[in-house]
Fold this protein.
Amino acid sequence: MRFRIFDKQEKKYISEFLSQYYLNHEGKLFFIYAGEGKHNEIHKELDPDRYVVEMSTGKPDKNGNKIYAGDKLSYQGNTGIVVWSKAGCNYCVVKPNTNILTEWGLWWKDSDEFEIIGTIHNVKQL
């Protein structure tokens, strides 16, 4: 399961030590660091109000960049935001600043027709 982490306080994506972060079965984000003993790991839960976990859709855009929840996409002159739909159990694309689904969802279009043009955080993607 691929994911990326956005730090709201620092206003940037975390790009270092990604292998030391994990999500548990409840979707809580933890940082793992070594304690004093060889096998002594300390798991620190990170503040969910500070860190945003964005899951990969498993699909690349037309430039080969992996598409994540929270990405802004362009498709045939239109834009949309990638979101997870609990009702549909898949990733969908909604019109910006709404919860209205576009007619060009990720589940039935070839992802090489989409282009990532930003994220919901308005910062450059990793």
Residues 3-45 form one domain. The mean pLDDT is 82. The chain has two domains: 3-45, 56-119. DSSP finds no helices and eleven strands in the chain.
